[in-house]
Every structure is written in C-alpha cells, then in structure tokens.
Queue: 2 jobs
Job 1
Amino acid sequence: MSFKSVAAKNVMAGVMTLALAALVLVSLTNESFIRAQSPQSAAPPNLRLPDETAGVDAIAQTLISAFDQVDIVELGEAHGRFRLDSDLRIAMVRNPDFAKKVRSIVVEFGSTTEQSTLDRYIRGENVSRAQLEQVWKTTTQAPNGIWDQPIYADFFAAVRDVNSKLPADARIRVFGGDPGPGDNRSRENAAVAVLKEQVLQKHGKALVIYGAAHFYRTMPSDYLSSLGEDIGLARKLEIDFPGRTLAVIPVGRLDPPPAWVTRGIDPDFQKFDRALKTQVRPVLVSLQRLPFRDFTAEEFLGRTLTTCRGAGGCVSVFQGSSLTLGQLADACVYVGGGADVDSKAKPTQ
C-alpha cells in the first residue's frame, strides 16, 4: 500500500473518531439537559427518608439520622416568619444524638470576622451582651434587622447550654458563615469556604442554617443570571462534593402575605393537606414522593422568594416557571395552611 493510501486511511480514521466523540458529547449533553428539565427529585441518589415524619421532636430525630447518609444537612428557614424554624433547630441540638454525630454548625446569622467572640460564648466563657451582638450585627444582612429577633440569640444560648454538659473534646462548634467587615468574599463563597476548610476536608459533618432560598438546587435561569457568584449553597457544594448534602426547606402559609408581594398565585394548601396521611403539623415530607415532588414552586414558594426589579411591582421569581418542589429540595417541613408567623419579618433580596 502506498504512503498516500495509508495517510488517507489515517485521516479518515481520525475524522470518524472525532465524529463519534462529538456524537457521544451531544448525547451526554442532551441527556443532562433532559435530566435538568425533568420534574424528578434532586435528592442524593442513595438518600432514603421516611415519607412523612410528624412532630418537632420526631422531625429532629429523623434529620439527625440523615447524617448517617449525608455529611451536610441544610436546614432552610423563613427568617423569623415561622416560630417552628427556631423550635426545630433547638430540638436538634438538644437531642443527645446530635453531638454524637455532628460537631459543626454554620449559620447565616453570624459573621466570619467575629468568630473568636462566638467561640468564646459557645464554650461558656463570659461574653457581654454587647459583645455577643457583634456576632450578628457585623453581618451583611444586619441593616435589615432580621437577626435582632430573639430566636437567633436563643439558638446560640441553646448550643452553649448543650456544650456545658459535654466534655471539651465532644462539644459543638458554631461558625459564622456571613462575611463580616474586611472579608471581601461573596456571602456564599465565604460560607462554602468555611464548610470546606472546617468540615468537609476534615471528614466531618455539619448542620447549616440559612434562609431557605440558599438551599434551592435550581432556580429560573433569568433569576440565576442576576445573582452573580451566589447561585445557591446547595449548587456550589455539589460542584466539589456531589451527593453529600440534604436540602430541607419550610413550606406553609405566610399569614398575612408579605406586604412586598403585589401579585402571584395563591397556594392551595388544602391540596397539600389532602395528600398527607398524618394530620399532625409540622410534618417532614420527602419531596422524592408523589404528588409533592411535582407540586410547582410557583404555587407553594412564590410568596417566599420575590424580585422587585421590574416595573410592575414585586413578583415571585418563579412566575411562569414549571420548576417543581422536587427539583428545588430533597424534603420540606410543612407547617400547614395557618402557620405561626412573625409579620414584622423583612425580606432579603
């Protein structure tokens, strides 16, 4: 065979290899696109949760047990609009099993630059009220006044009390995740750095307490594009630590509806109630199961995450979106259609 014939064959083989690679790439891309658009749950692949867990103490125990399957439990809150948020996280840290499995908690209502103050307080040292307040008053969200609600100081006090009964090497440490003065990282980059350096790289486990929207696994693309670097803690952690987080969000009626929402879909909580087996509230519901998996985010979360950038007033970021609860989170704590609400809570955008 001539040199030209060999060269031609080699060129043809190279072209076919490239074509095959391109075909595989397109196939994988299309498959990823289909998965991304599918209303299936975003839960870690091997995660198993009970369909329903009713009552604060039982929910706390179930979430603590989930640490046997994941390293991070992301417990979303409604920034003081539900008293349940406070009751549940305190029930978790007071449960004797918590400190046996988890030694780290990362909170939105503490700044990275006041970590030494927070450490001293949580260890049980004497810290004045004025000093302690700097932990949350130096956060980026302090001007909103949301952290001045007593429930946030109550949480620090609960962890301090739990630690007072534990040996020094078994105590829980609380980390502020919000960048304080002089910390130029974005809000979520600071939190992810704390989790990586203090927990995940040390093969530890952590409870993370932030506003629920930080734990949404996806959001409408136009809203995501407006967020800059802070696209969600759950999304960021999945990049380097896939399948190691459990995202739990609150769902329930905000009564009265937030004043900054001017229009949107009124959620049909009776539909949610009818699909549940238990009548006890609150109830932890797996969003891997039907029909909850396919309930739309626009209906049940539309009043909790809004944008006021348009000319028509404040509207849900999910307006017109087909995203479902199962795509946004792994489980929800459902408080019912008549939640205990602090109507003075302020929004954060």
Job 2
Amino acid sequence: MSLKTKVTLEILKLKKKAHEKIVALTAYDYGTAKILDEVGTDLILVGDSLGMVVLGYSSTLPVTLDDMIHHTRAVARGVRKSLLVADMPFSSYGISHEDTLRNAARFIQEAHAQAVKLEGGRTLADVIQKMVSVGIPVLGHLGMLPTHVIAQSGYHVQGRDVRQQKEMIEDALVLQDAGVFGLVLECVPTTLAREITEKLEIPTLGIGAGSDCDGQILVSHDLLGLYEGMKPKFVKQYAHLAQTMREAFKSYADDVKKGKFPSKEHIYS
C-alpha cells in the first residue's frame, strides 16, 4: 500500500487475501497520531489503554465514554490516511442496544472515528449486527479482555484448554457473521490464533497471539518504552524514551540552576 493511500475496510480485507501484514498501533494525542499516519500505519486505535498509560489508572475500567471521545477527537485531527478505530470503554456497550448504538454513534459523529472496537463474544452478536446495519463499522476483540479483567481474574492467557479453544473459535465465527470487519486476538496461544485466522475471511490482529495473525497491534507507549508499569511478554521495546526524557529534563534543570539556560542564542535583544 502506498503511504498516500487512504486505508479502508476493503483494503484491510484485500491485505489478508494478499497475505500482506497489517500494521496497527495505538495513539491518544494529535502529535503521535500524525506521526503514525505519516509512516503508513494501517490502523490507529484509540485504546482504552489510555487509562493506564496516559491517565494513571491501574486498569482500563475507570475510563469513561467522555474520556474516549475527548482523546479520539484529538487523534482524529492528526489522521489523514490510517483507519481510525476507537475503543468503547467499560459499561458503554452491552447493557442495552439503545445505549450501545447511541454511544457508538458519538464516536463516529462527534469524535470522527471510522469504526469502534468492542470486547466480547457471541453475546454481542445482535447489537453488532444492529450497529453495522446503521453504518457503524465494528472491530471485534477476543482472548484476554481488559474490560473483563475482574471476570477473568486478572490478565492471563486465554484459550489454553480445549473448552476455551472451542468457544473462542465459535465466538470468532459468530462475530464474523454478525458483521465485524476484523478481530483482535489478545494473549492467545499461537496455535489457536493461527486456527482462527485460517478459518476467518476477515483479518485478525494479534497482540500476544503469535506471528500467524494477519497483522499486529501494540500499545505505542509500550513499544516506545514510555510506560514503565507492567511489561507483558509480548511487548518488544523499540526505544527507551522514558529514560531519554529523564536525561533531557535533568539536563534542563541543571542548566537552569547553573544559569546556563537561557544562553545568548535563546534571548531576544
């Protein structure tokens, strides 16, 4: 795909057929989104992970719908070519069809997202079908579900036993039939992720699900070494920006204390 090409749902589907890997990352602000868009990221997710890496919560559960709308609007200002997807946070979907549709529509209309992501399996099939029917594209999410952290007793690999594997495969097929355009598989054994990917016509995005998915997604703060909370096994740090920032801030503080900043070149005459 050319860096000038606008990514659409059809392009993602064509990438799967062509065995061309899909690149996805998270963004929570204009500046990061602009850079991700410029380098040709296929899909940018405004993840509810912002609760942990931006807002300082211990989980994603406290993140509100208004939090997500606010950050999605900021990200949208930096996106021109990538497909922009927003996480629907805990309690904003699944309680009633009416509320789910209304909340999802806010992401499209107010925040300028092009799709939303929901965590969960077959119990969401009916509402996903309704969302798709009124023009709201949906990205599914199976495996380890951050919004289900209490029900799943923490952050653990999902799908290791035969019963879970069977249920996840069935859920994936049900979600596909309901109309999701793609599926995130999080913390899933690589053999299971491969089987699901092979069974589906829609693309899969892995995060801790091995290399056989149709694409990969990571939290940008993890990739950059900005977030120093828990570091899952599946994260590869491509930079260590937290340490770089410490060094830069300390150098600035030292220069101010010693009267080295501002120097002559930084002063107006």
